[in-house]
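Customer escalation, tier 2.

The customer says the design service returned an amino acid string that "doesn't look like it belongs to this structure." They asked us to rerun it and document both sides in this ticket. The original structure tokens are below, unchanged.
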């Protein structure tokens, strides 16, 4: 069975997704540090919880950035009167008419 090939994401969407992935990794690390600090009853729990809260905020911000950049890229692809991707942002070139015009006679 032939697999359908997915189109490549636009650069701004990929960059936003990478930022979201890094924010997720940072948040997971701070959660692990907070759990370990709470188990060991150290004073490190307060900064770990503060960093975890900041990480959750940044993660949500990055996820919203991914959604918005995907919507912007989709609206560029679906530009009015476009026959291909990003045609709405380019100057239209005329294609030669390949069909003969109907004659009335």
């Amino acid at each position: 069975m032939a697999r359908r090939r997915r189109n490549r994401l636009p650069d701004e969407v990929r960059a936003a997704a990478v930022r979201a992935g890094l924010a997720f990794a940072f948040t997971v690390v701070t959660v692990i540090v907070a759990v370990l600090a709470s188990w060991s009853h150290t004073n490190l729990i307060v900064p770990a919880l503060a960093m975890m809260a900041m990480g959750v905020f940044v993660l949500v911000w990055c996820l919203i950035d991914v959604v918005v950049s995907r919507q912007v890229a989709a609206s560029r692809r679906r530009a009015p009167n476009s026959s291909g991707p990003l045609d709405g942002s380019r100057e239209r070139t005329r294609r030669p008419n390949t069909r003969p015009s109907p004659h009335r006679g």
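Tier 2 assessment: The sequence is consistent with the input. The CA atoms of residues 26 and 93 lie 48 Å apart. The chain is about 60% helix and 0% strand. Sent an explanation to the customer and offered a walkthrough call.
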